[in-house]
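Weekend entry, working from home. Most of the wet-lab plans are on hold until the incubator is repaired, so I used the time to fold the two sequences that have been sitting in the queue since the last round of cloning. Logging both here for the record. First:
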Amino acid sequence: MSYDPIQLELFKNRFASIAEEMGVVLRRTSYSPNIKERLDFSCAIFNAQGEMIAQAAHIPVHLGAMPVSVKSAIERLTFEPGDVAILNDPFAGGSHLPDITLITPVFIKAETDDWQAEAPKEVTPATFQSSHLPTFPLFGFVASRAHHADVGGMAPGSMPLSTEIFQEGLIIPPLKLVERGQLNDGVMQLLLANVRTAEERAGDLRAQLAANTKGVERLLEVINRYGPAEVSLYMAGLLQYAERMTRALLAGLPDGVYEFIDYLDDDGIDPDPIKIAVKITIQGDEAQVDFSNSALQVKGSVNSVYAVTLSATLYVFRALIGLDIPANSGCLAPLSLIAPEGTVVNARPPAAVAGGNVETSQRITDVLLGALAQAAPSRVPAASQGTMNNVLIGGWDPEEQRAYTYYETIGGGMGAGASGPGADAIQCHMTNTLNTPVEALEYAYPFRVKRYEIRRGSGGEGQTSGGDGLCREIELLYEAQVTLLSDRRRLAPYGLAGGQSGQPGRNTLIRHGQRVALPAKTTQILQPNDIICIETPGGGGYGKKTAGNNV
C-alpha cells in the first residue's frame, strides 16, 4: 500500500493530539497531587488488535506495557459498546499494582450508503435486547494508565518491602468497571473498600473515565470526517513507518554482539547485589535482546514483569532513533526480546514486583544503553541516576481528620554524552513526571519542606560532566509510616569513554539534630518533627577530563 506522506504526518499528529487531550482531561479532573501535579499517568490509542498507534509524551515505562494490558483484556473479555475494562495485574500487562489501567473500546456503526460513526453512549441496555440490534464493529481502543497513591496492601502507598505480590495491594484482573454504559457499583465498592484513601481513589478513577470518554469522542470525530477505511489505512501506515525507522536505525549500526552487566544494590531483603545482564545481537536490520544471564527472581519487590522489561527495551531503541517518529507498536517489530521466566526481568507470580517497575526498569535501561554504547559510542550517554527515589508516607492527619497517602519520585542527574553535559535535577529515562511543588505538597499533606535544592558536585567529571542530583528534606508534623524504595546508594552510575561515575545517593533520618543513615529500601514508623533527607545520585561523566575541558 502507498500512503500520502503529508497525510501520514497529519494522522500521526491527529492521533497523538487525541492522547494528549485525554491527558489534559485526566489531569484537570483528578483528585490526587500525584496525578494533578506530578502527571504520573499515560494515555494512548490502539487498533482493534490491541497494537498501540499513538501515546502522548507521558511515562516511558508505560510505553510497551500498555499494549500488553490491552491485549490481555481482549483475550479475557468480550467487549460491547459502552464497556470500560479495568486492570492492574502485573502478570496481565500491568506494571505494578498502583498503576491502574482503564480500557474503553471504540465501536462504529456498520457502513451503509449514508455511513456515520455512532458513539457508544447512544447505545442503551434496552437496545441490546432488541432482535433488530445493528452491527457495531470494533474499531479500536483508548486507554489511560494512572498511578494511584494507594491500592491497599501492607503499607501506605502500596509499594512496601514486600516478599509476595499479595502484600502490595488489591490485584485487579481484567474485568468490566462499566458495562453497557452502566458503572458496575460492585466492582467500584470492592476496590474502594480495600484502599486507605477511598474518596481520592474514586475521584481519580472517574477522571480516568472522563479521559477515556474524551478519547472515544475525538477518535470518532476523526472517523466521521475521513471514514473508517482511510483512518484504518493510516493507522497501519504509522505502524509500518515506525517499523521502517527502527529497521533503518539497526541497519546503520555495525553488526555484532554487544554485552553489558550492571547491578541493583539489593532487593531490600537480602544484602547481595542483583545482576542485570544483556546481550544484544545486531544483524542487518534486526536485533535480538537477550537477558538470559540475569539473576533469578528475588525475595524482595525489585522483580520486573515481562511488560516492564519490554517497555524499557522499546524506550531505549526508540530514544536512540532520535527523530520525531510515532511511539507505537511498530517499533517492536524488528526486536526480539528474550527474558526467561523466573528471572528478575520476567518474574513468575506470586513474586513481589512493586519496585520492579520503578527501580529495575531503570537498571534494565542502564544495561541496554551500556551495550549499545559499544555500537554507537557517540550517540549513547553515560548512566543517569538509575533510580526513581520513591518516597511514600502515610498516616492520619488530625487537623483534616482523614487518612492520607503521599507518593513521589525525586529527580537526579542525567548522564553526560559526547554532545554535551547531563541535565541537573531531572526525572531520567523511565519516568517523565514533574515534582510536587512545595506549596501543593504542604497544602495537601501534614508536612513541611525544609530543603529542596540541587546537590552540587554530585555529577561525574569528564570531558562533559554528568548532571547533578537533588536534595529534598521533608519534616513530618505527625507520626507516619514512611517507605523508601531507592537504589544507586552503593553502586554508582557509570561513566563512559573515560568519564567518572556519578556520586551515589544517600537517605538520612534527622532526629533532634542527629543524622542517621537509612538503607536504600526501608519502611519505618517516624515521629513528629523527624526529617527525611533524600540526596539523589548524579549522572556519569563522558570522556576523559583534561585541563579546562570539563563542561
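Second, folded right after the first finished:
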Amino acid sequence: MKANEGRARGGDILTSTAGRDTAHEHPAGLTRRIRREFEDIRYAWGDQAGRMGMLGSALILLGSFGPQTLPNDNLWRDVPVLGWFQTRAGLIAGPGIMFVGVMLLLDAWLRLRPGAPGHRPLTRGTVWLWSLPLLFAPPLLSFDAYSYAAQGELVHRGHDPYREGPGVLGDLFTAQVDNYWRDTPAPYGPLSLQLQHLIVDLTGHNAYLAAILVRIPAFVGVLLLSVYLPRLARITGYDRETTIWLAVLNPLVLLHFVGGAHNDSLMLGLMVFGLWAAASRHLVWGAVVVAAAASIKQPAAAAILAVAALHAWRSKGWVMPTNRELVRPVLAAVGVFVAAFVGISLACGLGFGWITALGVPNTIRSMLSPFTLVGTGVEWVLVQLGLVAENAVVPWFQRIGQVIGLVVTAWLIWRFKARHPVRTLGWILLVLVFTGPVVHPWYVLWGGLFFAMTESGLRARRIAVWATVGLVIYSVVDASTRNYPISVSVGVLASLALVWITSGHDRTLAPNRVPGRRRAERGTSS
C-alpha cells in the first residue's frame, strides 16, 4: 500500500523540458517551480504546433474587437486600428480573422495529439502559450463576464443579487449586460459573487476592466485543471498524455474558460482538485474543496460521492471497497461537505437566496438541450393547430427531461457504486447537462473533461474530437450572428474549413495503449 501511495502521490503530472521522470524528486521551492514553468513555455515554443496555436490565439484576440464580443458602449471605438473593427468593413473582417485563428488553434491542437508523427511530451507550457493572447481579449463568445462584473457591483452597493438584477445599477455596469439578463437575479453560489465583488473593488469600479479581470479566477481554474486532472489520471490508471491533450488543451476549454471567463472553470478546477485530494491526501480535504467548488456553482456537489469512493479505495490500498465499507466514508464526506458549504455561505454573508434563483438560466430556450428542442418543435406544431398557447408545452418537456436525468443518475450510482468513481461522475454530469432545460457549449465540459480522461477507445476519442469541433463551430457562428448576415456567411465557410481540417486528422486518432497501474477506475487492485 505504501509503495502504491508513493507512486500515486509523487508523480509530476507534466513532463519537464528534458522529458525526465520527476516522480521521486523532492518538492521544489517557489523559485524553482516558476523557473520550470518558463522552461516548459520555452519547450512548447520549440514545437511548430505550439507556435501555430499561439498564432491562432493572437488572431482570435485581434478579431475580437468587434460588436460580436463588445457591448455597444465600449472604450475601443476611438482607438486607432482596433476601432476600425467596429466600422462596416471591420464587421466582416473581425469575425473572419477570428475564424482563421480558431482554425489554426484547432489544427495545432490536432497535430499535438498523442501518437501523431513527431509527437513530443506535452507540457503546461502549451497552456500558457495558447492562453496568453486570450487573457487580453474582450470576453469571448458570451457576454456573461459583463454580468459577473455587474453582479459584483450589486454586492458592493448593498443590493441582494439573488433578488435584483443589474438593471437597478443604471450605469455602464448595466449597459454592458445583455438585455436579456439585466433584470434577472444571479443564480451563482455566494463564493462566486464575493470573488466578483472583490474584483470590482480592485478595479476601482471600472465596469469594462472588471469584466476583463473576472477572467483571473477562470484562468486559475484552467491552471488547476492543468495540474490536477493529469495527476488524477495518473492515480486512477488513465493515460496522462491523452488527458492533457484531449481535456486540458481542448479548444473549448481555451475559448470558453480562458476567453469567455466563465465561472464554470473555477468550479471544475476546484472539483478536480478535491477529487485528487481525496485520492491522495484525505477525505476531509477533498470534501472541503468540493464544497468550495459548489459555492462557486452548485453542480460541483455531484462530486461528493466520488470523493467518498476515492477515499475508500485509497484507504484499502487501492482494492475495491465493499458496499458496507462505503457507508462510513459517504456519510463522512456528505457531512463535511454540508458543514463546509454552509460555513462558506455564512462567511460570504449573502445567505441562501441562490436556491430561489436556480431557475433563472431556464428562462431562455436553449436549442442545444434535446428536451427543449423537441418541446419547442412539438409546441410550434400544436400552436399552429390552435390547440395550445405559446409556452404551454416546453416547460413540461423540460420537467420530463429533469426527471429522466435524476432517474438515470440514481441508476448510475446504484449500478457502479465505487467501481468507477471518476468515470461515473463524468457520465452523471453529462446526463444532467443533456437532460436539463438549458445547455451551453461550456456546460458540456462539466462531464466532458472526465469523459476525455476515462474513455480511451477510438470511438470515444472520435466522439470527443468531433464534439469539440461541432461546439466550437456553434459557439463562433452564434457569436457572429450579432453582426451583419455576411458575417454569418463567413462563419459558415470557416465552419466547412474546420470540418475539412478535422477530417484530415480523423484517420490517425487511434489512441495509444494506456500504460501503468489499474486503479479505482479499472475496478481491480494494483
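Plan for Monday: verify the second prediction. The chain has a mean pLDDT of 83.
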